Amino acid sequence: MDRNDAIAASSAEARRAFYARIGALGMTPLWEVLGALVPPQPKSPVAPALWRYDAIREHVMEAGALISAEEAERRVLILENPALRGQSCITQSLYAGLQLILPGEVAPAHRHTQSALRLVLDGEGAYTAVDGERTTMRYGDFIITPSWTFHDHGNDGMEPVVWLDGLDIPLVSFLDAGFAEKSAAKSQAATRPEGDALARYGMNMLPLDHEQSASEPSKVFVYPFVRTRESLLGISKAAIDPHHGFKLRFVNPATGRSPMPTIGTFAQRLPKGFETRPSRSSDSSVHVCLEGEGRATIGEQSFDFGRRDIFVVPSWRTFSLAAREDSLLFSFSDRPVQQVLGLFREQRLD
Ligand code: GTQ
To answer: Which residue, judged by its Cα, is nearest atom 6 of ligand 1?
Structure first.
């Protein structure tokens, strides 16, 4: 051992001893972890992944034979990110799951501080009730249940109904701000007729005295797929965005902000044969193909997707889409949280 090695060895030993002494006092040295704590750019532990609906559908249906919606309270198979198993999340901030409700069943009314979205994927005849109004769930409809609003789900139809749940459960858990309670009534009494909120708040008009702060959720709680489609087809005669195709964000029409403060939601059309240029953004995102088919390239990996398939894109991973058929996609992320905190970044590549 030369002199320099001896000094290095003794200082390494001195450091270890020092770390042990301060460890006993509840302290640890920053310089050992600084690079991981303050990375030059996001190094998301989230893995890119795709769930093929055709492959998981039978298992979702099997859950229907094992437990009732009422016993389960919510009969859901959670989509766990493969790199975050056991944590009940699809990204670091978001949860996703597939909820099944069979004919005649009710998922009883409750409310919680976590915000939820539903994207209807399979079957007809179910409804969700939010704050005293029911909405019939149709394929591709995007429905919200904002923080602390009572909601119950039911199926008055003839077939099983499945939808994707997206919630900010990990974010609320991180903040230790979760509260929940059950309603005394299994199903909410209807206090408004179906369609009331959409007519009152979702037609480019608002009630005379209606005012909302920027963080309040939308009173429109259903964004019907027929309207989303109409918007996406309507803008398709104009120039296409090379990075995103034809892409719109859903808004609270009273504020122009996202429908709920913690989850941003988007709809996108890619014409047959269109390939986006790559881009990356600081929000990990969950994508659902509602029509068409194509390929998602996420970092080094590629995933072929078709109707009802769900895939996840980690923060700051290079991402591009290619449409084999005319395709419509829905997506959601924590973008509005990052935006109000001044953290959101996006980079268009190529
Ligand atoms: O429908 O209220 O997937 O409370 C997870 C938690 C759905 C719901 C989930 C929930 C719900």
So the answer is: 74
